[in-house]
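Our collaborator T.R. sent over the components below with a one-line note: 'Predict the complex.' Nothing else. No constraints on interfaces, no templates requested, no preferences about which chain binds where. So this is a plain run: every listed entity goes in together, and whatever single assembly comes back becomes the starting point for the next discussion.
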Amino acid sequence: MINRDNTFNWFMLVLRRDLTLSFRRSATYITPLIFFLIVVTFFPLALGPSQSLLSSLASGIIWISALLSSLLAVEGIFSEDYRDGTLDQYFVSSEPVFVLIFAKVLCHWLVCGAPIILASIISSIFLYLPSGVLFALVTSLLLGTLFMSLLGALGAALSLGKSAILSAIIVLPFSIPTLLMGTAIMSSAINQQDYSGFLSIMGAMLAIGIPGLCLLTVEAILLNYE
Amino acid sequence: MSNILKVTNLNCHRSGETVLQDLNFEVEAGKNVEIIGSNGSGKTTLLRLLLGFINDYEGEMYWNDSEVPSKLKEKDIHSFYQGHQIGIKPLLTVYENLKFSSSGFNSTEEEIISVANKVGIRNFLNRQSASLSAGQKKRIAIGRWLLKDFNLYLIDEPFTALDDEGIALIKDVVTDLNNKGASFLITGHRPSELISNKIYLDVKNDKSR
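Returned assembly:
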């Protein structure tokens, strides 16, 4: 029997704890942000400052950089808790474990995904992205980066105790649908077409992904315990 | 007295080696069992197996006087596990380490302060745990036992890194919790005076050789 008050307290506790730890260890949220800004800045340097070229590539550049940067800190979602025994204690407690996983995913998104979305607004200026599509950029990244955090958590759970880069390699092929949807939203927005259909598909992916990927992540962590 | 756990003919093989052989024991509610063995004798494996982390074993576990073997998770038993790694975050304060734990998240500030008083860390509550000694960190871990009512505590080697005062503290806490009906399964290298009911894993394994 799940006590709803308890479960909500439990969710808030894990979220607060992870946010506190992230902010005391500032590298966790600054690294992905700086990585994103550096990668995005490299494109105008490498391709030249041609406005027509950059604006046609802008949405792809921002999306790929966002995907790569959001995977940067993914390994840290579980690794420390796994090593120091916290995860054991959480798994033994009678509180639902997938709530714990979702809280950790949400924390990862808040400290990695959300700053990247803000930085994408800044980078859209020097990539000459038309300002009319900013709304499409932000909403698509909002859904896309949250989905990436969910996928990343699964990758991190599967690669617990192994090399950090492994989780990124596991996750990247599965991020293709997100990338396709995200860039489709952007090109529709740039061509002034209706993109609500693509947004709905991304929303649906997220709606299935939150329970589905969280439950898979629980199983993946238990595999490491065997 | 009712049994919280009864284990019969438990065998476990890991990577082709026999880790646990033909184990039989009972844990009564409000009583304790100490599992004694040298390094690698399967103490931790036994605890993790009871918790359901390891599913590859032969034999039966009966929880809460049940006639039917089952897993811990299927039963309404509130259990607390403390492994070798006790899960104290150096970046959190002592208070946060108690509050943000699996047992403390529903506790009020007063409850946490009174527990901290009891385990002797009241004066460090706002200090970052990184600056504490190993023994003081163990005391935070003991504080976590008290923040919620559990039926069964599975504690892996609680006596390491503790001074005499700390060991006395564990005795006090365990006796208190026993009186409330909780049971302890504790592992160790050497028999302690605290618990009379003991299982020797080395002896079991020697027989098999």
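Summary for T.R.: Chain A has a mean pLDDT of 91.
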